[in-house]
Design goal:
By secondary structure, this protein is mainly alpha-helical. It has one domain (about 5-45, about 65-140). It contains 5 helices and 3 strands, in the order αββαααβα. The protein has helices spanning about 5-20, 35-45, 65-85, 90-115, 125-140, and strands at about 20-30, 30-35, 120-125. The chain has a 3-stranded antiparallel β-sheet.
Length: about 160
Amino acid sequence: METWQVVALIGAVIFLFAGFLPLISASAMFVTISFSLVDMYRFITSPQPGTPTPPEMTISIPTGAYMLILALILYPITIILGFLSIIKQKLSLIAGILGIICWIGGIWFVYDLNTLSLGVLNYGIGIFVGFVGAIILLAAFFVKRREVAPLSTATVTS
């Protein structure tokens, strides 16, 4: 494997791992509760009993909820492009940019939720690990390919 492929693979694995780390954490007394991006997928696919359906909801949706949706959409796209960038180097640029946008959406979501909850929530480590993975993916684009210089057949005359 070439250097850029190794860098892209490391970035994609770190980015994938970040989805399982806490996105949001809240501490009260001796209890800490945290949710990862993968937990958000589980919550969306199997809502809890008693959760109001959209016609019953009358509250306005904060902008942060849209940012969570953005992060939930960009996360799998970035993972797919990240692993495909091992084959084609140009995809690592797209994967890195989308990954950074994904985690900016995550930060925005937590910030918006934090303002509604009066500062009880904290940013999870998953956001920052995700940024590291996205930056490594972005860096894989800028790692130069090693080109083998053609051997010249110079003859030595005596």
